[in-house]
Amino acid sequence: MGTRLPSHRALVTRFGASASPVSRARALLAQRGLVISRPGAGLGREDVLVVGRRTGRPVHRDAGSGRSLARLQTALTQRRRLAVRTVVETLGADVLPDHPRGGYHLWLRLPRGTDESEFLSAALARGTALAPGTYFYADQPDVPRVRLSYAAAPTTADLVTGIHRLEGLV
């Protein structure tokens, strides 16, 4: 089937890298179907390099995984539509000039001159956690943005409540 890869610790030591890049590389190999992760003999897992596999083709797929992905896609689509509708109704259309067709987040555009840090602090004080846009739009610091994750909210009711808590801050 393939060749067993060295342990995570061994790869970190061998390449003199930190743990994070090694983890990302292993995850990318697994995502592309080039590595199978399975429980190892010890406490960790064993990664096996798959020889002769095409990139992007899953190594193993159980019978229910297609249905699970379809349910996940449907749930995320419903959450995205609910989040877009709630943001526009609660905060106004100017806050959301772009409506995504997929993904996990909405990018809320704040009025020019808004202090992003103060906005994030005020939102957090009201119980809604957002990510700063400057981390993602470093080349456009003059347009304050925040990232709202509609995928991370535990329920759709929590999602709507979190958006309503932002009312009056924009």
UniProtKB/TrEMBL annotation:
Keyword flag Transcription regulation: yes
Pfam families according to UniProt: GntR
Protein name listed in UniProt: Regulatory protein, gntR family
GO molecular function: DNA binding; DNA-binding transcription factor activity
InterPro entries reported in the protein's UniProt record: HTH_trans_reg/aminotransferase, PyrdxlP-dep_Trfase, PyrdxlP-dep_Trfase_small, Tscrpt_reg_HTH_GntR, WH-like_DNA-bd_sf, WH_DNA-bd_sf
Domain HTH gntR-type per the UniProt entry, residue ranges: 1-48
Family matches, as Gene3D superfamilies: Aspartate Aminotransferase, domain 1, Winged helix-like DNA-binding domain superfamily/Winged helix DNA-binding domain
Organism name: Kocuria marina subsp. indica
UniProt keyword list: DNA-binding, Pyridoxal phosphate, Transcription, Transcription regulation
